[in-house]
Structures are given as C-alpha cells and as structure tokens.
Write a structure and sequence with these properties.
Layout (H helix, E strand, L loop, with lengths): L2 E5 L7 H14 L3 E4 L4 H4 L9 H12 L3 E5 L7 H6 L26 H18 L5 E5 L12 H15 L2 H8 L28 H29 L5 E2 L1 E2 L8 H4 L7 E4 L16 H11 L3 E6 L18 H11 L2 E6 L25 H15 L12 E5 L1 H9 L8 H13 L5 E5 L9 E4 L9 H10 L3 E5 L21 H4 L1 E18 L4 E13 L3 E6 L8 E8 L2 E6 L1 E3 L1 H14 L12 E8 L2 E8 L5 E5 L2 E5 L4 E7 L1
Parallel strand pairs: 1-2, 1-9, 2-3, 3-4, 4-5, 6-7, 7-8, 8-9, 10-11, 10-12, 12-13, 13-18
Antiparallel strand pairs: 14-15, 14-16, 15-19, 16-17, 17-18, 20-21, 21-24, 22-23
The chain binds beta-D-galactopyranose.
Length: 649
Amino acid sequence: MMKIGVDYYPEHWDISLWAADADLMQQTGVKLVRLAEFAWCRLEPQDGVFDFAWLDEAIDLFAERGIEVILCTPTSCPPMWLYEKHPDIVHVEKDGTPTNLGIRSHRCVTNPTFLHYADRITITMARHYADNPAVTGWQIDNELEAYFCYCEHCISKYRAWLQKKYGAIENLNKAYGNVVWSGEYSAWSQVKPPYGSLPHAWQNPAYMLDFYRFCSDNVIDFSERQAAQLREHCPGRPVTTNVWFCEHMPDFYKQFANLDFISYDNYPATRLPEDTESCYSHAFHLDMMRGVKRRPFWIMEQLSGGKGCWAPMEKPPLPGMIKGYALQAFAHGADTVVHFRWRTSNIGAEMHWHGLLDHSNVPGRRFHEFADLCKMANQLEKWQGSEIRADVAILFSFDNEYAFKIQPQTEGYYYLEQLQRLHRAFTALGLNVDIIGQHEKLDGYKIVCAPEMYVHGDGVAERLEDFARQGGTVILTTRSGVKDAHNNTVMAQLPGIYREMTGVHVVEYAPIGWESVPVIFEDGKELNVKQWCDILEADTAQVLARYNGDYFAGAVAITCNAYGKGQVYYIGAVGTQSLYDRMARMTTEEAALPVVFDLPERVEMVTRTRDDEQARFVFNNDDKPKAFQLDGREIRLAPFEMRVIETNY
Ligand code: GAL
C-alpha cells in the first residue's frame, strides 16, 4: 500500500497534546508514525533503569487509531549520564580533541563501552516491543555517516582492517606507493588516520581511499550489529536505516545488502534555480535510492516546511510542493513517504526546521495540502507493486565518489554532475532511468551510461564490453580507466582498460577548470565544454565532434565506436546540459527507444507498468503551469502538479 506517515516526537510535547495529535493524524489519513529517535535519555533515564511506559502509551494511542509505528533505536544521542560516566565514548576530531557535547551523533560507534550501552538499549527495546503488533518496523540510529573518528579504538580497528586486507606491511607499502615522501611503514603501529588541518588532497590518495572505505565498513558493522539484535529479539519486523547525500556517505550498496529496505531523507530545494541548466530535481536521488536494492524504498523524512536551524531560514515549500514532491517520490518507486515532522518544535536546536504544523499548532496552508496528499495516496494504491522498467541505466560507484573527493580534478569538477546531467537528458525524453551500482548485471538494458569510470572496479569493464558486444550502447566519459583499485594511476594511455572498446586514446588532457572551449559536431552544431578536455586520437572510432578552440583546436573530442553488435561512445569533455541532451537524442534514436520529444522544460515523467496496464506519472516540477500534448492528449498541469495518466498497452 502507498502509505503516508509522519515523524513524531511525543517526548517533545506535553502529554495532553498526544491524543489530539493522534486524532488529527487519523482524520487526515496518516497511516504510520516514526517514534523514539533520539529519545535515549527518556528511555533509560539512569544507567540500567528503563522507562518504556510513556512510549507504550504513545504507541497505544496510535494503535487504537489504526496507525502503525516504526520505532528507532535512539543510539544517535547517548544520554548525559553516559557521557559523564564514560567521557571517552565521544567521537574524536582530526586534531585529536574529543567532540564537544550538546549536539547529536557525537558518539564513536567503535568504542566498546558505547557499544555495550548501545547493545543494551537496543536489545531491551527490541524485547519490550517484540509482542506489540503496532510496532511494524525498525529504523537503526539516524543518518549514520561514515564519519572519520580519530579515537584509539578506531585507530586499532583501522589497523586490523588493513592487516586483514594486506597481510604484511610490505604489501601495504607497495599498494600505497609509500616510498614517496619516505612514507614507508616498518611497523603497523606507525599507521595513523589522516590527522591535521591540511586538506586531504595533501595525503597519499591510495591511503586516503582505504581510509574512506574503512570508515564506511566501520559504520556498516555498527548497523549490522543492531540489525542482528533487532532481528533476534523482535523477529519478523523489517529493519532499515535512513540515509541522505551527505559529506561522508557510507557505501549504500554494502550498507543495505543485509537490511530489508532502504529509506532516504528527502529535502528538495524550495527555491528553484533561475537558469534552466541546473540539475536541481530530486528525481536523480530518488532513482538512485530505487537502484540501491533495485526495489521500492521509503522516504523516512520528507520536506514539510521551511528549512532553517544551522543556516538562516529558507522560503517555505511553495504551494503544490508538499503534495508534488511526495508524489514525485511515489512515482520513482517509494512506497511509503514519512513527513518530517508533524509539528514544528517549540524547543531545542531545530525549532526553525518547519514541520507540517507551525509552532502555533493551527493547521495552515501546508497542512491542508498534506491532507490532500493523504487522500491522493489512497487513490494511487492500485499502482502499488507496479514496476518501473528502464531501458537506460547509469552506473554509480562509491569508490569513485570517494576518490573524486580525495583528489579534486580541476576547478568545478564534481563526480555527480555528469551523472545528473545524463540522468536529466534521458528522463527529459520521458524515459525511466535506473541508477545502479557498477557491480550490477546489465541484462535487460539498451543503453548503459558509465560516466567517469575512474577507480578500477572488478569486472566492470568486462561487463560493459559484453553488453556492447551483444548489441548494447555504452556511453563512457572522461576520467575513465585512470586509477587501479588502490587509487594509483595506471601506466597506460587513457582510457586504459576501456581503450579497446572505445576505440580511442587520450594523447593529452587539459583540465580547463572554469574556462570553456567550443566543440563542433559533424553537422556544424557548436556547444561549449568546460572543466576537462581529453585530446583524443581515434584508433577505430568514428569522430563525432572536435574541439574548436584553445591550443587543441581541431583535435577529437567525442567519438563512437562500433563494437560487436553494439556501440561505445566516448565523451572526452565535461559538457553543459545541451551536450548530454544531444547525446541522449542520438543514442535513443539509434536504439529505437520509445521517447517523448516534446515534454516541456521541468516536466518529468515516470512510466509504471503492471501486467497489461501502464500509467504515466507526469509531474510539473516548476512554479509555472504547463500545457502540452502527450500520447495525443492535451495535458495541463498546475505548478508542482502530478497527474497519473492510465494507458493500456
Ligand atoms: C535530518 C535529520 C533529522 C532532522 C532533519 C531536519 O537530516 O535526520 O533528525 O534533523 O534533518 O533538520
């Protein structure tokens, strides 16, 4: 069922408000509440003294009204008595000092004392709620990040992780090329995390990539530990954790491999960019979340009001956004959307992060729109379980995400940008697009975009070759084949392992940062590229475009190589949106994909299929109305309106 829920913090409100809140939720059509996140100080007010009575009471109120509960383990916020008793459980900063108290998530998830207490509260809660049918699922902690912690426990675990991977210290020295700057270790005790205030780009990139990987694995250990405890002591309930696109993202593919579903915190911007070039749509994030487990996902926190708190307050969601952005998530594969939060807090650090209800508790414009959303979600139930079949896939890799962060390539170069532009180019043609891990099989796709295949991934090049040989279209881009699996550069003309399939090689590259250079296509059409220019020579590929400026004017920029029964494109520069739009049109036409050519700017479409029924979810992601023709019908959309158009096929 497509469900709408809310995040609710009973411990923030006087108990006299709870029943009225639950009544209003029920009347509005809320089906689910998320509770207990951050509430450790109320669940265990003293060491070993537990109090679940208040939470039981809140859960009962919801259960009586047919609202199910997802509970969170509160381990993101240890109580003050625990910090006082064990000050060493805090996270240690890169200058070696412990993080200050007063904010959240400042505990170290490796610290054995912390783990003892985290295990105890998790297991005690799990046992307490094992027989309560109103509790239908668990969220582990909150927004677990692959933080860098510099405490002694993390350092020992990091060394053990390296020992397991490399065996002998000589192997580690070799893998990292530690001879540079006399960095060779003669004992494991010399291995330290990257301390200090200098940017990480000063560090050895091979060492840094392993450190990122370790931090990710480390937080995943913590989440798996809790998942195992929840499953053992509260069996039969699905377990997840909520993620977002943060600075230190764990590897979601590994993180969710053993969790039941992925949940994402979705806060689209409320201010639309003026220029039409910007990739601001959260459709990219949503497709990426669907791709993590290649299954429906949840939104665990959904935009409900103006953002604020640690930054000045922003404009509230424009009329239509509350409903539109939740429905956009449904269209892209969410089956549950939980709004953050029911009511804006009157207390604490987040009092300026607005919920559905304002501080006054008087339902206003946003709340009424939310009520409408709840009604509409019921009407969409028939599409629950329908499939989003995609002919186009974009490959993503966390190694690349980390490696590009570690070594900025040139000014303005950002790993996700080319992925987002390719995504936008194909979705603008009305196509469903999957964003999947580069380890996935490619069967069933017609076009696979493999942008910036920078760090070597096991078997990816072979899978792409097979895919092309069997008739698929591959799009590779600049910065591919550059690094081995250790994040050292390879001694080969780029694109290295992709050279044969692309039929080109890079004779020189020019990182041009914010400068721009025109490229000219065979038909005379000129477009500007920026940031990066691979100066190419074709081996077997056909030339599609050449540079038309700078010292490399006339050199090859974009190519297409016939490979087996398929083709492999190589885009040797970073383009603006129009370049990717052009490539998407060219490749979809060749692959004879069923594109829609005249979707207006900022109108998005997802097609969902079940048996012999199909629906187009058409969404106007703009503050201006739109009118256009689709499948021979005139469609008019209000700002941020989602329309579901059913078709038989
Ligand atoms: C999320 C977090 C929530 C809340 C929200 C808005 O990142 O999980 O607890 O802080 O942001 O501030």
